[in-house]
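Question (not urgent): is this output format expected?
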Amino acid sequence: MIWNIYLSGEVHTDWRDKVMSLAKERSLPVRFSSAVTDHAASDAAGDGLPPSSEGFWRDHKSAKVNALRTRTLIAQCDLAVVRFGEEYKQWNAAFDAGQLAALGKPYITLHGEGLVHALKEVDGAALAWAKTAAQVVDVLEYVTLGTPRPLEG
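Got this back:
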């Protein structure tokens, strides 16, 4: 089985690249998908739709166009990783986590200890919490191959 893993959340660091690289190094049977991570492209996703607009309505149209991708990929995934960074509020990641929970899709949260309290409900529905990309891949290795590996700290 090839597992479909959806990578959600923070777009300002290379965490996705780290997860995908480690998974490839370990030859895990996984395929990754994600929302559009180019912030400017994501913000402009609805710009081609009438009428021309700014502010709220521009964001509103782009959010809906982006949702065509994210909702479809979330529905198709076997499990997801939802990343919350320290610097920005990732409301989109919290929204994705809610969708995953509502659909009964398993997910792993990835964030530092400083967000434990703020994400208690999101973490409460997650099936694992990791602090590093390596820990995420340890879980993915166990889940996809059934081979235990001592979790890295």
